[in-house]
Amino acid sequence: MTSADPARVITIARSWLGTPYHDQASLNGVGCDCLGLARGVWREVVGPEPFPIPPYSRDWGETGPHEVLAEGARCMMPEIASADAGPGALVLFRMAPRAIAKHVGILTGPDSFLHAYERLGVIEEALTPSWRRRIAFAFMFPQR
């Protein structure tokens, strides 16, 4: 599977900057959550979403036997080692020890990423050591 052009992924992702936070939404300029941002970028980079996303919990501390987001991403995107993730990669963050990875971001540079954050909406911020340590999985958007 060939990966999409990272510069194109980043340009499209940055077009979402300032989109208000809205749980389980995915409309550029209207509202989205972190997964909604990734879904919206997917639609512009790859095409229609391959399957509907069922309702999901906002609990970053949720535990369970399945890494649901990672398992879903593996069906559609090439997985890469977290250490190899660079600009244009979709990263999944584990926000609490022993929790499943439930926060999503898109790397925009070696030390920056975009994500949707409650009360802030879609923002670009530094990939600090604290954020970097939380990366559990990384994937590349496939080419259309």
Automatic annotation (TrEMBL):
Residues 3-142 form the NlpC/P60 domain. GO terms for molecular function: cysteine-type peptidase activity. One of its GO terms (biological process) is proteolysis. Keywords: Hydrolase, Protease, Thiol protease. SUPFAM superfamilies: Cysteine proteinases. The keyword Iron-sulfur does not apply. InterPro entries: NLP_P60_dom (IPR000064), Papain-like_cys_pep_sf (IPR038765), Phage_pept_NlpC/P60 (IPR011929). Belongs to the peptidase C40 family. This is Putative phage cell wall peptidase, NlpC/P60 family.
